[in-house]
């Protein structure tokens, strides 16, 4: 994100969001990869969950969710065995670990809507967006599986944009709120 600030000449700082007070102070939020059920529990325990949900309702917090973050943005989760509590921000249905065992992690050159050049995407035990509805827009697919979507000021990616030097998706996110 820092590179995107520099590249776009934006005066911005990044903070690691750890307390619910942080949620009121930030202009935008990135929910990273990890284990979505664990992240959800941490968010709930720390009080951040309700603070984020409130700002989602008020439509004042742009969010980019990558991998586990994508799961957390979804309104629906396929076979939600862990009873994972998501933020219900986007009209998407997500299936966790949907690329199966032998393909748990892989890299793929994909096309992203609006990008003139292909994008190198890194998938790690990635979810798939099974369905989008409402005003949600599909931004990218791999073998007919949706891996990137946008709705209002929310972006969901089933891959990891932070693991490559390509900052175009961070720039795209930044452009949504500067
Ligand atoms: N499989 C994880 C989950 O469903 C996501 C993996 C990741 O973020 N790299 O929470």
**What are the bound molecules?**
glutamine
* Helix share, percent: 25-40%
- Cα Rg: 15 Å
Report the CATH topology name: Rossmann fold
What's the CATH H-level homologous superfamily? Class I glutamine amidotransferase (GATase) domain
Distance, first to last CA? 13 Å
Main sheet: strands, sense, barrel: 5 strands, mixed
* Poorly predicted runs of 5 or more residues: none
What is the level 1 CATH name?
Alpha Beta
Specify the overall morphology: globular
Q: Any idea how many domains?
A: 1
Biggest sheet strand line-up: 1-2-10-9-8
CATH architecture: 3-Layer(aba) Sandwich
Number of helices: 6
Order of helices and strands: HHEHHEHEEEEEEEEH
Strand residue content:
25-35%
Structure, described:
This protein is an alpha/beta fold. It has a single domain (2-175), classed as Class I glutamine amidotransferase (GATase) domain (Rossmann fold). 27% of the residues lie in helices and 29% in strands. It is built from six helices and ten strands; from the N terminus they run ααβααβαββββββββα. It has helices at residues 2-7, 20-25, 36-46, 48-58, 68-73, 168-175; strands at residues 29-31, 63-66, 74-77, 90-95, 105-110, 119-124, 128-132, 137-142, 145-151, 154-157. Strand 9 and strand 10 form a beta hairpin. The structure holds glutamine. The site of glutamine (GLN) has 12 residues, from helix 5.
């Amino acid at each position: 994100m820092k590179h995107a600030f520099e590249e776009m000449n934006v005066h911005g700082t990044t903070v690691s969001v750890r307390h619910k007070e942080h949620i009121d102070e930030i202009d935008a939020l990135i929910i990273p990869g990890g284990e979505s059920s664990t992240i959800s529990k941490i968010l709930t325990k720390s009080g951040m969950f309700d603070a984020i949900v409130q700002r989602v309702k008020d439509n004042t917090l742009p969010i980019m969710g990558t991998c586990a973050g994508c799961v957390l943005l979804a309104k629906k989760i396929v076979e939600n065995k862990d009873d994972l509590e998501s933020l219900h921000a986007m009209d998407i249905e997500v299936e966790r670990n949907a690329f199966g065992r032998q393909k748990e992690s892989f890299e793929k050159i994909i096309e992203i809507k609006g990008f003139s050049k292909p994008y190198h995407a890194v998938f790690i035990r990635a979810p798939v967006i099974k369905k989008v509805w409402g005003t949600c827009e599909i931004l990218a697919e791999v073998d007919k599986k949706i891996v990137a979507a946008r709705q209002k000021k929310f972006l969901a990616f089933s891959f990891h944009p932070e693991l490559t030097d390509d900052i175009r998706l961070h720039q795209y996110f930044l452009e949504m709120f500067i």
